[in-house]
Amino acid sequence: MKLSSLICQDCSKAAVLFNSKKRILEFISELAHNKLPYLAQQDILNSLMAREKLGSTGIGRGIAIPHARMNGAQDPLALILINEKPISFDAIDNRPVDIFVALIVPDGDNSQHLKTLSTIAEKLNNKEFCKQLRSAQSDESLYQIIVEQS
Question: Is the pLDDT at 110 greater than 80, yes or no?
Answer without folding.
Answer: no
